[in-house]
Design brief:
mainly alpha, 8 helices, about 0% strand
């Protein structure tokens, strides 16, 4: 009888220990899952950042050297062509149509546009200065959105505008992506964002982050 009581008490002693192991491992699994999700999210944003960087850098390189894609060979900036004349000069819709025509081919417009493409592209690829890149990129995309003016169904000459959406187009999508990349510090993964953030002048000027 005594042996039976002893074994019963022993079995009872093991039960709390078993329950304790279950409750202690559950939070560790949850933490591990959150860490894995955070890591995956960081790499996704880092990859998107690099793709966006290539979009801007390629636009700069093609317009500079005329690789035969958007810019015909021999018509590049280095050959004396104007990166803005073709696009701004052909604007035929929207409230800034005449203003864009005046800007088309101007040296200051060419330099500002090309330096913008280069600076935004390099910042995205390196993962540094994403807030500044987001501000500059959003301003650039906003101007290009106005130049194409998606709300219009017809151009100034009455021909169809071929707009597929009265508001949302790829310029707005690019702007939203740039803002999101800066907001989540996407340069910290697959980039030099962490090293950049440690620099004293960057710490003292948050807008450079």
């Amino acid at each position: 009888m005594a042996v039976h009581d002893h074994s019963h008490r022993s079995a009872g002693l093991h039960l709390p220990s078993f329950r304790g192991n279950r409750t202690s491992t559950a939070p560790e699994s949850a933490v591990s899952a959150r860490d894995d999700t955070h890591t995956a999210r960081a790499y996704v944003f880092g990859s998107v950042r690099l793709l966006m960087g290539f979009v801007f850098l390629w636009a700069f390189l093609d317009k500079t050297f005329g690789f035969g894609y958007a810019t015909p060979s021999g018509k590049g900036w280095i050959d004396g062509g104007s990166p803005t004349k073709g696009f701004l000069g052909s604007v035929s819709v929207g409230p800034m149509e005449s203003t864009f025509h005046e800007w088309a081919g101007a040296a200051w417009a060419d330099w500002l546009f090309m330096l913008g493409l280069l600076g935004i592209g390099l910042a995205l690829v390196a993962g540094i200065g994403l807030r500044l890149a987001a501000m500059a990129g959003t301003a650039m995309m906003a101007l290009m959105w106005v130049a194409e003016w998606p709300p219009a169904q017809h151009l100034s000459d009455g021909s169809p505008s071929m707009s597929t959406n009265p508001f949302a187009d790829y310029h707005l999508v690019y702007a939203a992506v740039l803002i999101a990349l800066a907001a989540v510090s996407a340069g910290d993964t697959l980039g030099a964002g962490r090293l950049w953030a440690r620099l004293r002048f960057v710490r003292d000027n948050g807008w450079l982050r």
